[in-house]
Every structure is written in C-alpha cells, then in structure tokens.
Design brief:
The protein is mostly helical. It is 38% helix and 4% strand. A two-stranded antiparallel ribbon has the order 1-2.
Length: 119
C-alpha cells in the first residue's frame, strides 16, 4: 500500500505523456550492389582546358590563337618580339669570339714561353 500512496503523492494528476509512434517498415534483406552518393562543393573544369604561358618574358606582338580554338603541341599561340632575343644572341656571340681570341693569344704566348725555355 505504501508504494501506491507514494505513486499517488508524486503524480500531478495528469496522465503520462503518450510516446510518439514511429512508422515501421518491414522488408527483405538481399545481397547486391550498394550505391554511395557523395556531395561536394566545387567547380567543374573542361578536361581539355590548359593554361598557356611563354617560357621567356617579352613583348607580345600577336596572339594567333583565339579563346576556344583547338591547338596542338607546337602551334603558335603567342608571338613575342624577337628583337631583344636577337640582340642578346649577338652579344653572346661577340663574347664567345672574344674569349676564343683570348685563348688563341694566351696559347701562342704559352708556346713562345715553352720554346724560349728549350733554348
């Protein structure tokens, strides 16, 4: 009797809350391929798109290729001013020729020095 009195004393007179019922689905389990879905944020790029740049710096004279045009390896896409490169090549050739002349002069001097030691 004591438990009944305690239960009545603790209750506020309201009926106990009804639990929310959830639908139950029954199905057969079978073996087969599973589908996995992944959702990612990002940007889709064309597989044929590539960034193009020159191997050297220079002044652009022309751009023969147009945006969206198909190009192959070796196709001209940017035409740079060749004058600075020609000048640099001529300067390098002049330095090479001066160095070759210096080697020839020093080689001749060495030959003369060796010949004078043999006398």
């Amino acid at each position: 009797m004591l438990p009944l009195l305690l239960a009545l004393a603790c209750s506020n007179g309201a009926p106990p809350p009804k639990s929310a019922s959830l639908p139950v689905v029954v199905g057969e389990v079978s073996q087969g391929p599973a589908t996995i879905r992944v959702t990612l944020d990002g940007e889709v790029l064309d597989a044929e798109e590539a960034e193009v740049g020159a191997e050297v710096a220079g002044t652009v004279l022309a751009v023969p290729a147009r945006v969206g045009q198909s190009v192959s390896k070796g196709d001209e896409v940017i035409l740079l001013d060749p004058r600075p490169f020609r000048i640099a090549l001529e300067q390098a050739d002049a330095l090479r020729m001066a160095a070759e002349a210096d080697v020839a002069v020093r080689s001749a001097a060495l030959d003369r020095a060796r010949a004078s030691q043999l006398r």
